[in-house]
Amino acid sequence: MLLARWLECGSSLLALVEPMRGVDVGARADIYTALRRMAADGAAIVVATSDYEEVVQLAGRAVVMIRGRVTRELAGGQITTESLMDAAGG
């Protein structure tokens, strides 16, 4: 519902916090597809999440932060579950 409302307002920036929390697997895939389409159409999408797999699925660029400080920036093929875990210290 939120994405539909966002599309109606015509904004070029979408900020999401833990957007897939509580979303079932089927709906998650549909949302990933919609977000990728929006990004391809020029929207800037900022996602704050602790779900590494979500980052791998969505991000073209990832910034890992610990206690409010950037510890690593990753892009493209650098964004893997392993690299995110390493950057987060785990």
Show the helix and strand layout.
Elements: H1 2-9, E1 13-17, H2 25-40, E2 44-48, H3 52-58, E3 61-66, E4 69-75, H4 81-87
Parallel strand pairs: 1-2
Antiparallel strand pairs: 3-4
Explain what this protein looks like in three dimensions.
The chain has four helices and four strands. The mean pLDDT is 88. The longest helix has 16 residues, at 25-40. The protein is α+β, with helices and mostly antiparallel strands and 90 residues long.
List keywords for this structure.
90 residues; alpha+beta; Rossmann fold; two-stranded parallel ribbon; 4 helices; 42% helix; globular
Give a concise summary.
This is Sugar ABC transporter ATP-binding protein. The protein has 90 residues and is of the alpha+beta class. Helix content is 42%, strand content 26%.
What is the CATH class designation?
A: Alpha Beta
How many structural domains are formed by the residues?
1
Query: Percent helix among the residues?
Result: 40-55%
The number of helices is 4
Average pLDDT confidence is 88
- The tally of beta strands, per DSSP, is 4
